[in-house]
Amino acid sequence: MRQIKLNFVDPNHLSILLQDQGFKSEILYLKPQLLTGGKSIGLTDPIQEHSSFDTEVVVLTIFARAMKRLIFPESEHDVMFMNPFANTFKGGLILWDTTMVLVEIQIT
Predict the structure, then answer these.
(1) What does the DSSP 8-state code read for residue 66?
(2) Which residues contact 105 (CB under 8 A, 6 or more apart)?
(3) Number of domains into which the chain is organized
(4) Which is higher by pLDDT, 28 or 86?
C-alpha cells in the first residue's frame, strides 16, 4: 500500500472538495485523512499492484476532474498535470496555461 500526501497551495480548494458528497464517495477507498491544519490530505492506495506512477496518475486524475468541476467550472482552462509528458512522474496539478500550482504530491 502506498501513502500519498497532497499539499494544496490554497487550503480553500481542499475544503471545497471535501464538502462535495460525490467527491468524498469517490476517494473513500483511499482512506482520506486531513493533515497540516487543513492544507494537506493523506491517502492510502490499497491496490497492491499499482506502481508509484500508477498511484500518482490515478489520484491526481480524480482530484483534477473534481477541481475543474467544483472550483474552476467557469474557467476556459483545464486542471492538468504539472509534468504532462508520458511515462514521467506528474508532480502535482496546475491550472493549464497559467503558472498557478494547485496541488503538489508526495508518494511513499
Answers:
(1) H
(2) 4, 5, 6, 7, 56, 59, 60, 90, 91, 92
(3) 1
(4) 28
Instruction: Quote the pTM value.
Output: 0.91
Q: 79 pairs with which residues across the strands?
A: 95
Rounded-to-integer distance, Cα 8 and Cα 48, Å: 26
Q: Which helix (H) or strand (E) holds 11?
A: helix 11-18
DSSP code for 37: G
Domain that holds residue 82: 2-107
- CA 71/CA 42 separation, integer angstroms: 20
Residue 4 grid coordinates: 500519498
In this prediction, residue 21 carries a pLDDT of 97
Phi-psi domain of 91 (left: phi exceeds 0; alpha: psi -120 through 50; beta: other): left
Helix (H) or strand (E) holding 55: helix 52-70
Query: Each residue of 25-72: pLDDT tens digit?
Result: 999 999 999 997 889 999 999 988 888 889 999 999 999 999 999 999
Q: CA 75, CA 69: separation in Å to the nearest integer?
A: 10
